[in-house]
From TrEMBL:
This is UDP-glucose 6-dehydrogenase. GO terms for biological process: polysaccharide biosynthetic process; UDP-glucuronate biosynthetic process. Belongs to the UDP-glucose/GDP-mannose dehydrogenase family. NAD(+) binds at residues 34, 39, 90, 125, 159, 267, 332. It catalyses: UDP-alpha-D-glucose + 2 NAD(+) + H2O = UDP-alpha-D-glucuronate + 2 NADH + 3 H(+). Its EC number is 1.1.1.22. Signal peptide: none annotated.
Length: 435
C-alpha cells in the first residue's frame, strides 16, 4: 500500500460502515461519522448495527489499532481528513423520485465544518447531475480560501457479501471534473487492486443506475420466462442453464423466483424511470421490469390460493425466510413482507422463520409468530412457503419437515428444492417455472 490517507466516511450504514472498515484494513486512517448517536455509541462498544459476514472482526480489529474511529459530528472528519466519502441514504419518495435530503444535509455540514480544501466523494447512489449540484452548493457555502472538488465513485457491493465484494471489486468507477481530484481518489483506492474506469461525473452517476437497472432487467426477464415455462412444460432451471452457457449472456442473475427486493434494485429502478420521465424519455423496458417484478409477488400468492381452491381463511402457512435475500438481516422492500400482507388479507394465518432477521421482522409483522427453529414454524402448518433461500432452509431435513407439516404441501418461491425429488418424497410441490 502507498502512504496512508486520512479518510472520512459520512454515513455508517451498509455502504458507509463496510467501506470505512475496509479502508482502515488497507491502512488508511478513517473517521466514520453518523448522525445517529445510538449507532455510533454501539459501534464504539464494538456492536454492529447490521449483520454482514466478517464485518465485526474488521471493525473491532481496526478500531483497536486506532485506524478507525466513530464520531457523530461531521466536523470530526472534516478537521482531520483530506477525502470525505458520502455514503448517506438516498431512499425513494412516494412518487418514485430520490429523496436527496440526507445528501443535502451532509453537504451543508461539510461546507460548514471544513477549514481547508476537501475532495468530497459521493458513494451514495444519486441521480445524474448531483455531483455538479453538490459542488456548486459546497463552493457557494465554503469559507473563504477553501476549495471543494466533488468526485463520483458509485458503490457496487451486495448486501450479505459486502466485505468480500469490497476486497474483490469488479471495477472502480471514478467520475471527476478535476483530474487531480480523480487521481487522488485513484491513489486512495489503489490497495483494492481493481480495474479503474476514469470518466466524467455524469457518466459515473449513470453507470450506477444502468448497472442496477440491467440486473433488475435480467431478473424480470427470467421471471417472465419462468411463467412461460409453466405454460409450455419447460423447466426454467434448464432454460437458464442453457442460456447462461453463452458467454455473452453469462449464468448469473438468472435465478427465477418471486422477484427482486431490497433497498436498492426496487428504489433504483423506480428512480431510473423518474429520471427518464424528467427529461421526457419514456423508458419502456424499465416500466415493464418494475411491473413484472410486482406481478411476480402476486403470482406467487395466486398460486398458493389456487392450491387451496381460493380459500385461505383458516389456513396456517409457514413462511421460510423473511430477509430480502440470504445472509443479511435487511427487510427493506423484502418480498416476504408484501407476500405475507397479501396472504393475511385473504384470511391466512402466518408463521415465519428466519435465522437472522427475526427480531427486526417482529416489529414489522405484529401478530406473526416468528420462530428461531424452522421445524417449530412448520408444526401443523397447512403448507411451507420458501421465500428466502437461506442455507438453513435449503438443508432442511425434509422427513422432519414433512412430519411437522399438517399437509405435505410446498410452494418453493426460490426453487431451492428439486421438483422430482420432492414429489418422490411425497410432497405436493410447486416451484417457479416448473411444470
Ligand atoms: N445497501 C447497499 O447494498 C448499497 C447501497 N448503495 C447506496 O449507498 C447509499 C447508502 O445506502 P445504505 O448504506 O444501505 O443506507 P443506510 O440507510 O443503511 O445508511 C445511511 C446512514 O447515513 C446516516 N446519515 C444520514 N444523513 C447523515 C449525515 N448528514 N451525516 C452523517 N450520517 C448521516 C444515517 O443515519 C444512516 O445510518 C444509498 O444511496 C444506496 O443507494 C449502493 C450500493 C449498495
Ligand atoms: O445498489 C445496490 O445497493 C446493490 O444492489 C444489488 O445488491 P443487493 O440488493 O444487495 O442484492 P442482490 O444480490 O443484487 O439481490 C437483489 C434481489 O434480487 C433477487 N435476485 C437476485 C438474483 C437472481 O438471479 N434472482 C433474484 O431474484 C434477490 O433475491 C434479491 O431480492 C446489486 O447486486 C449490487 O451490485 C448493488 O451495489
Amino acid at each position: 500500500m502507498g502512504e496512508p490517507i486520512a479518510v472520512g466516511v459520512l454515513g455508517a450504514g451498509y455502504v458507509g460502515l463496510v467501506s470505512a472498515a475496509c479502508f482502515a484494513e488497507v491502512g488508511h486512517r478513517v473517521v466514520c461519522v453518523d448522525r445517529d448517536e445510538r449507532k455510533i455509541a454501539a459501534l464504539r462498544r464494538g456492536e454492529m448495527p447490521i449483520y454482514e459476514a466478517g464485518l465485526e472482526d474488521l471493525v473491532r480489529r481496526n478500531a483497536a489499532a486506532g485506524r478507525l474511529t466513530f464520531e457523530t459530528e461531521t466536523a470530526a472528519a472534516a478537521s482531520a481528513c483530506e477525502l470525505l466519502f458520502v455514503a448517506v441514504g438516498t431512499p425513494s419518495l412516494d412518487n418514485g423520485d430520490v429523496d436527496m435530503s440526507q445528501i443535502k444535509s451532509a453537504m451543508e455540514a461539510i461546507a460548514e465544518s471544513s477549514a481547508d480544501d476537501k475532495i468530497v466523494v459521493i458513494k451514495s447512489t444519486v441521480p445524474v447531475g448531483t455531483g455538479a449540484m453538490a459542488e456548486a452548493l459546497l463552493r457557494s457555502k465554503a469559507r473563504s480560501g477553501v476549495r471543494f472538488d466533488v468526485v463520483s465513485n458509485p458503490e457496487f457491493l451486495r448486501e450479505g457479501s459486502a466485505v468480500h465484494d469490497t476486497f474483490h471489486m469488479d471495477r472502480i468507477v471514478i467520475g471527476a471534473a478535476s483530474p487531480a481530484a480523480g487521481e487522488r481518489l485513484r491513489e486512495a483506492l489503489a490497495p483494492f487492486d481493481a480495474p479503474v474506469l476514469m470518466t466524467n461525473r455524469e457518466s459515473a452517476e449513470l453507470i450506477k443506475y444502468a448497472s442496477n437497472s440491467f440486473l433488475a432487467t435480467k431478473i424480470s426477464f427470467i421471471n417472465e420466462m419462468a411463467n412461460l415455462c409453466e405454460k409450455v412444460g419447460a423447466d426454467i432451471g434448464m432454460v437458464a442453464q442453457g442460456m447462461g452457457m453463452d458467454k455473452r449472456i453469462g449464468p448469473s442473475f438468472l435465478n427465477a423466483g418471486i422477484g427482486y427486493g431490497g433497498f436498492c434494485l426496487p428504489k433504483d429502478t423506480r428512480a431510473q424511470l423518474f429520471i427518464a420521465e424528467n427529461v421526457d424519455y419514456d423508458f419502456k423496458i424499465m416500466r415493464a421490469v418494475v411491473e413484472v417484478n410486482q406481478l411476480q409477488r402476486q403470482r406467487f400468492v395466486r398460486k398458493v390460493r389456487a392450491a387451496f381452491d381460493g380459500e385461505l381463511a383458516g389456513k396456517t402457512l409457514a413462511v421460510m425466510g423473511l430477509s430480502f435475500k440470504p445472509n443479511t438481516d435487511d427487510l427493506r422492500d423484502a418480498p416476504s413482507l408484501d407476500i405475507i400482507a397479501m396472504l393475511r388479507q385473504y384470511g391466512a394465518s402466518i408463521r415465519a422463520y428466519d435465522p437472522v432477521s427475526g427480531p427486526k421482522a417482529a416489529k414489522l409483522l405484529p401478530g406473526v409468530p416468528i420462530a428461531d427453529d424452522p421445524y417449530e414454524a412448520l408444526r401443523d402448518a397447512d403448507a411451507m412457503l420458501v421465500v428466502t433461500e437461506w442455507a438453513q432452509v435449503k438443508t432442511l431435513d425434509l422427513d422432519r419437515a414433512k412430519a411437522a407439516l399438517r399437509r405435505p404441501l410446498v410452494f418453493d418461491g426460490r426453487n431451492v428444492f428439486d421438483a422430482a425429488a420432492m414429489r418422490a418424497q411425497g410432497f405436493r410441490y410447486f416451484g417457479i417455472g416448473k411444470s
